[in-house]
Amino acid sequence: MGSGGGSHYSWSLCVRPCWWLWVPYRQRSANGDPTNAGGRPPKTHFGTFYGTNITPDPTHGIGQWTEKQLIDGIRLGLRPDGSVMSPVMPYPAFSGMSDVDVRALVTYLRNLPAVAKVNQPHSLSIPFMGFAMRLWRLFFFTPTIAPLQSPMEGVARGRYISDHLAHCQECHTPRTWSGTLDLPRYLAGNADGVDGEVAPNITPDNDTGVGEWSEDDMVSLLKSGFLPNMDNVQGLMALVIDGVPEGGYKDMTDEDALAVAQYLKRVPPVVHRVETKKE
User: Fold this and answer.
1) Euclidean distance between CA atoms 279 and 242, whole angstroms
2) What is the dihedral of CA 81, 117, 63, 107, to 10 degrees?
3) Which residues pair with 175 in a beta bridge?
4) How does strand 43-44 pair with strand 47-48?
5) 3-state secondary structure the chain
6) Measured at the alpha carbon of residue 121, what is the angle toward residues 118 and 122, in degrees to the nearest 5?
7) Which of 50, 104, 144, 279 is the most buried (most CB within 10 A)?
8) pTM for this entry
9) Chain-centre distance of CA 151, in angstroms?
10) Over its length of 279 residues, how does the chain's per-residue pLDDT go in tens digits?
């Protein structure tokens, strides 16, 4: 059985996939900046978004946010002043996070070392950014009815981890012109992901996806970073698997890794060939 309610474990599964935006706990970015104080610049079709300071610093971070304000930020993409966050902060995925898990995440954020680092403005091609984000949320976001506690085992547990904690779809699903997920091609791979990285098709299509992989192959990938051919993953996927001293996908329980594999074997297969970019 997975340990879905544990405060350490829950935020670990949730925060690690986002570390490329904030930089993980107790690590430093390549230029020496402190962790979770923001500044990493993921590049998208709409420009460059800079991760914000999510340490408890009262001036530049979230030190003055109430618990409700933090939860509304995580699940609903709302700041305390009512403005709307960019969906680069994956609140559409986090909206389905259980009450137990979101409070565990808030506890984690509250206990980070405070860092007095000024947030860097985004560099975007979107005019009237605040208004645009409000319109995007109005037209493209429907909050998920979050459970009190997450599913604890089996395929339901795997779907919950994949969709709402690890948010696999945010990288592995292609985007539409508006930046929303192209849901008919859910998990079918994205040839032009964040920072130009290719995210492969992870649906069970035999020719273009992972249909020939066994559940054990998938568990091995999540826990070790090695593909069935014994090559290893690179880029952002390698980073979220390796994690930090606090943990990455490699530190998932065996039960949870198997639950994710069982879920991925059961999503609809989609024929969508995603080619690795040539260097």
Assistant:
1) 24
2) 110
3) 181
4) antiparallel
5) CCCCCCHHHHHHHHHHHHHHHHCCCCCCCCCCCCCCCCCCCCEECCEECCCCCCCCCCCCCCCCCCHHHHHHHHHHCECCCCCECCCCCCHHHHCCCCHHHHHHHHHHHHCCCCCCCCCCCCEECCCCHHHHHHHHHHHHCCCCCCCCCCCCCHHHHHHHHHHHHCCCHHHHCCECCCCCECHHHCCCCECCCHHHCCECCCCCCCCCCCCCCCHHHHHHHHHHCECCCCCECCHHHHHHHHCCCCCCHHHCCHHHHHHHHHHHCCCCCCCCCCCCCCC
6) 140
7) 104
8) 0.87
9) 19
10) 344 444 445 545 555 555 445 543 344 444 455 667 776 777 777 778 888 888 999 999 999 999 999 999 999 999 999 999 988 889 999 999 999 999 998 998 898 889 998 988 888 777 888 899 999 999 999 999 999 999 999 999 999 999 999 999 999 999 998 889 999 999 999 998 877 889 999 999 999 999 999 999 999 999 999 999 999 998 889 888 887 655 688 888 999 999 999 999 999 999 999 987 655
The identity of residue 255, as a single letter, is: E
105, two tokens: 């995440």
Position 37: which residue type? A
